[in-house]
Amino acid sequence: MKLKLLLLFIFSFYLTAQAQDTPADTLQPVNNPVMQADSTAQEEEGGEEEEEGSEEEEEDKDTTPAKFRYRFSTDGTVTSGNVSRALIQFATSLDWNLHKTFKLSSSPSYVFGNQNKVAAERETFADLRASFLYEKRFYYLAFSSYEQSNLRKINNRFIGAGGIGYKLVQKKTIYLSVTNVLLYEKTDFVVNEKFPDRNLWRNSTRLFGEYTFDNGKMSLSHTLYVQPSITEKNFRWNGNLILRYQVSKNVSFRSMMENSYESIVVPGRKNNDFRWTFGIVLEGKK
Questions:
Q1: Which residues pair with 242 in a beta bridge?
Q2: What is the DSSP letter of 172?
Q3: DSSP helix/strand/coil, 10
Q4: How many domains does the chain have?
Q5: Is 216 domain-assigned?
Q6: Which among 114, 122, 113, 153 is positioned nearest to 269, based on CA atoms?
Q7: Euclidean distance between the first and final Cα of the chain, in Å?
Q8: 133, 125 in Cβ contact below 8 A?
Q9: What is the pLDDT of residues 13-45, one digit of tens each?
Q10: What is the pTM for the complete model shown?
Q11: Is residue 56, in this structure, part of any structural domain at all?
């Protein structure tokens, strides 16, 4: 009888211990599923080959955003026959993440165009932009630029500006932002006798958007600048629409349509200019 009671006591103690080891919240599974990495980190680290085991990859994976990004593109058109026409455009986009709150960017470009062996376009553009708190939804920016244009008979154009920006939409496949700056512009035209140079202030609003499709292989982006003068009657706007398709990790095909308008131009020049070009893009990051 004592042996039976002893066995019953041991069995009861075993059941009690097992009940205490059960998870308190029975709605949660014991083994939680592994969460996927943040979409931003996936974008920064995308395209890398898996060379090591999953455990080692979990430990060594660097999710730090790239500090330096570059993009080189060239496009244009060439025709011959009754009208000989050559148009080639080179553009570069550079980004330096110097700090988590401060970034420098630049987008220099050069356009070369001949028509019937006569120089039609020699367009040079260089800029430097600084963004503060760029990872925030509301951020600040300042920039300066230099421009020369054979097409518009501009010897030199200097611009300095500063203002604010706001990210309207920031998702994995959609990015949309708007900026507004106060801008000072100084333009030295080729013709000066009856067409004076311009020194004026503008308000500049930019709307930028980028949309990706097909798991990031295809993208559509647009940029629109609206720049009325606040010191005289002078209005300018320009914009572009770019379709890009990625064929490899670093190479893409692209097609770009761009339009620019200035209400005040040198006599003999039209107010509006339109280009449609096709080309390739080389890009990377470090």
A1: 221, 256
A2: S
A3: helix
A4: 1
A5: yes
A6: 153
A7: 79
A8: no
A9: 343 333 333 333 322 333 333 333 333 333 333
A10: 0.71
A11: no
CA dist 161 and 180 (Å) reads: 10
CA 196 to chain centre: 37
| Whole-angstrom distance, CA of residue 253 vs CA of residue 247 | 7
CA torsion, ordered 154, 156, 162, 168, to nearest 10 deg? 40
Does the pLDDT at position 51 exceed 90? no
CATH assignment at residue 137: 2.40.160.40
Asked whether residue 34 is assigned to any structural domain, the reply reads no
Residue 238 zone, left/alpha/beta (φ > 0; ψ -120 to 50; rest): beta
Name which of 135, 142, 149 is nearest 188 in CA terms.
149
Angle at 121 between CA 117 and CA 125, to 5 degrees: 150
- The answer to whether the beta carbons of residues 113 and 121 sit under 8 Å apart is yes
Is 39 domain-assigned?
A: no
User: What is the extent of the structural domain holding 183?
Assistant: 68-285
Q: Mind listing the pLDDT tens digit for each residue in 249-286?
A: 889 999 999 999 999 988 888 899 998 888 999 988 87
Where b means 16+ CB within 10 Å and e means fewer, 257-281 reads ebebebebbeeeeeeebebebebeb
Q: Which amino acid is at 234?
A: N
Strand (E) or helix (H) holding 14 = helix 2-20
Residue 85 belongs to what H/E stretch?
A: strand 85-99
| The two structure tokens encoding residue 105 | 């960017």
pLDDT at 43: 33
Six-digit token string for 74: 């060239």
Both tokens of 43, joined, read 């974008």
Largest CA distance in the chain: 124
What is the rounded CA–CA span in Å between residue 232 and residue 237? 16
